[in-house]
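Researcher: Please translate sequence to structure tokens.
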Amino acid sequence: MKFGKLPDISQVDFTLPPDDPRTLETLRRCKGDPDTFQCYIGSSRWGEKDLVGSIYPPGTPVKDYLHYYSRQFASVEMNTTHYRIPTPQMVQQWRDKTLPSFRFCPKLPQTISHSRDFGRSMRATELLLASLEAFGEQLGMPFMQLP
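Model: Translation complete:
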């Protein structure tokens, strides 16, 4: 078995443990009503061919992975944005394949996160902002990986 990968997950118990008594208190300190607190569960990418037959129906073409992924999970951590800033048109194509409640959590591009001034003097920041705006209500929490 490779670290972090199981050949068969059919026997894995995904039951969550009971909430710790401190959880509600923590949620009360957060903004908003703890009874309506939302948590989005997802993975770091949707383009995994080995998910065909489990998450994706057998024979699913690559172009439909996101559609099926978004019906199983509520969010995705977008590592792809670390390497390339998507155009607003690409973001719209992704949005069109998902439910309105789905959230995209893009990683800031390395051209920004790995530059000395964090992209303040670069066109990449302008492109990123246009891309983030295109996510609209489906923009989840963007995040940055530092070098």
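Researcher: Any highlights?
Model: The longest strand covers residues 75-78.
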